[in-house]
Design a protein that fits this description.
nine-stranded mixed beta sheet; two-stranded antiparallel sheet
């Protein structure tokens, strides 16, 4: 009986060779795309980390400035006791700050500049102990959408309303990076949780309402507060399709 010897080469047809090349190309392309996606993720995390560092540097500068102001006040408000041969004289020497209006106070704040040229200041700091939030609140010069987007990369930013800790609805917007940075954990807040807003004084606010709205709905910025101080926190849902609104009222 004749035996037919079939070599391996006989099974590798042109069609198989073509498929093999296609599979190889698909594998290399997939590997390339994975490398690009990983690179984008690493860069995004690096960028967010740098933004966090900028935010914390601003906060540290604010705290240092407050400490210096407290020290200056303590030094300027002194009780001078003068002795002479006749009697003891007491003299209360108080130096008033050169600038006292809100407009002049803003001029005293340190001015920062974003990478694309927008100028801004830190007007307050926000603390939410439950979710370990402690950031400066930024305010730009123009309040344009482009400026707000630039500032949001560095820290939560004023969106609308009066000055912080003033009567009215002070609205703050912050990014949700789906981690622990900025306002990522704000959607987890519950009614009764508290936040603190610090300017030259610290006021405590309590969450009384939370809901989601369409991005085009800005009714949460209404200034009808019946003469009370309120704070509204605004961020995105995890899928970025809706906006999470957290309403707080002064305790």
């Amino acid at each position: 009986m004749n035996q037919i010897l079939v070599t391996k080469k006989l099974y590798i047809t042109p069609e198989l060779k073509k498929k093999k090349k296609i599979y190889k190309f698909d594998f290399i392309l997939s590997l390339f795309l994975v490398c690009i996606l990983v690179s984008f993720y690493i860069y995004a995390e690096y960028d967010r980390t740098k933004s966090e560092e900028v935010s914390q540097t601003i906060l540290a500068n604010m705290n240092t400035q407050e400490d210096n102001e407290d020290t200056t006040v303590a030094q300027n408000n002194v009780l001078v006791v003068v002795f002479n041969d006749q009697e003891e004289q007491k003299q209360d020497v108080t130096k008033q700050p050169a600038m006292t209006s809100k407009e002049n106070d803003k001029k005293q704040k340190e001015v920062y500049t974003t990478a694309n040229g927008y100028r801004y200041t830190s007007i307050a700091s926000i603390s939410i102990p439950k979710i370990n939030v402690n950031y400066p609140i930024l305010e730009g010069e123009t309040s344009t959408l482009e400026e707000t987007e630039a500032l949001l990369k560095n820290s939560p930013t004023k969106f609308w309303g009066p000055d912080p800790n003033e009567v009215g609805n002070f609205c703050i917007v912050g990014h949700n990076y789906r981690n622990s940075r900025f306002f990522s954990k704000v959607p987890t807040l519950q009614i009764g949780d508290q936040i603190q807003l610090t300017t030259d004084k610290t006021l405590t606010y309590e969450v009384y309402e939370k809901y989601t709205v369409d991005p085009s709905d800005v009714s949460c910025t209404s200034q009808k507060t019946n003469g009370k101080r309120e704070v509204t926190l605004i961020t995105c849902t995890d899928d970025s399709k809706l906006r999470v609104i957290v309403k707080c009222r002064e305790v």
